[in-house]
Amino acid sequence: MTGEERRQQLLDVARTLFAEKGFDGASVEEIAHRANVSKPVVYEHFGGKEGVYAVVVDREMHNLLAKMTSALAEEAHPRMLLERAAVALLDYVEGSADGFRILVRASPVASATGTFSSLLNDIASQVEDILGVQFSSRGYDPKLAALYSQALVGMVALTGQWWLDVRKPRKEEVAAHLVNLSWNGLSHLENGPVA
C-alpha cells in the first residue's frame, strides 16, 4: 500500500470506529487492529487518536457544508430553498450516517473547522441572508431574519438526528413536512404536504 492509500485506510477504519463508539470509546489500538497495522503506523500518519479524529471530523464538516451550500446557492423561491436545504441534510444523513453520527456526538477534541454547532451557525448565516432579503421585500423586519434562520436550521438538524435512527417516513416526505411546518406555521398546516 502507498502512504496515501494507508492513510485513507486508517481514516476509513477510524471513521467507522468513531461512529460506533464515539471518540472516548475508540482507541489507537483498535484502529490499528482493525486496519491490520501496528500502533506506530497510526501515530506516524496522525500523531494519535486526536489527530485522526480531527481529520475525520474536518472531512465530514466540509462534505456536509458543501451539500448545504450547494442547496442554497441557486436563486429560487424561499420555500424551494428551504426544501432543498432539508433534502440536502437528509441526503447527507442517509448517505453518510457514520459521518453524521460523528458530527452530532459531543467530543473533547475540536476540529480545524469547528464543531457541529459552528457548522449549523455557518448554514444559518447563509439562510439569514436569504431570509433578510425576503423579509425586506415583504415589509417584515429584516433584523428578525437571524432568529428565524436559527429556528429553521435547528429544526431541520434535530429532525435529521431523529430520522437517522428511524428512517421513516422517507426523506422526501420528512422534508415536505418540515417545509409545511416552517412555511405554513402550526395554524396553517396543510393536511398533506406534497413531497
From TrEMBL:
<dbReference type="InterPro" id="IPR050109">
    <property type="entry name" value="HTH-type_TetR-like_transc_reg"/>
</dbReference>
<dbReference type="InterPro" id="IPR036271">
    <property type="entry name" value="Tet_transcr_reg_TetR-rel_C_sf"/>
</dbReference>
<dbReference type="InterPro" id="IPR009057">
    <property type="entry name" value="Homeodomain-like_sf"/>
</dbReference>
<dbReference type="InterPro" id="IPR054129">
    <property type="entry name" value="DesT_TetR_C"/>
</dbReference>
<dbReference type="GO" id="GO:0045892">
    <property type="term" value="P:negative regulation of DNA-templated transcription"/>
</dbReference>
<dbReference type="GO" id="GO:0000976">
    <property type="term" value="F:transcription cis-regulatory region binding"/>
</dbReference>
<dbReference type="Pfam" id="PF00440">
    <property type="entry name" value="TetR_N"/>
</dbReference>
<protein>
    <submittedName>
        <fullName>TetR family transcriptional regulator</fullName>
    </submittedName>
</protein>
<dbReference type="Pfam" id="PF21943">
    <property type="entry name" value="TetR_C_46"/>
</dbReference>
<feature type="DNA-binding region" description="H-T-H motif">
    <location>
        <begin position="27"/>
        <end position="46"/>
    </location>
</feature>
<keyword id="KW-0238">DNA-binding</keyword>
<keyword id="KW-0805">Transcription regulation</keyword>
<feature type="domain" description="HTH tetR-type">
    <location>
        <begin position="4"/>
        <end position="64"/>
    </location>
</feature>
<dbReference type="GO" id="GO:0003700">
    <property type="term" value="F:DNA-binding transcription factor activity"/>
</dbReference>
<dbReference type="InterPro" id="IPR001647">
    <property type="entry name" value="HTH_TetR"/>
</dbReference>
<dbReference type="InterPro" id="IPR023772">
    <property type="entry name" value="DNA-bd_HTH_TetR-type_CS"/>
</dbReference>
<keyword id="KW-0804">Transcription</keyword>
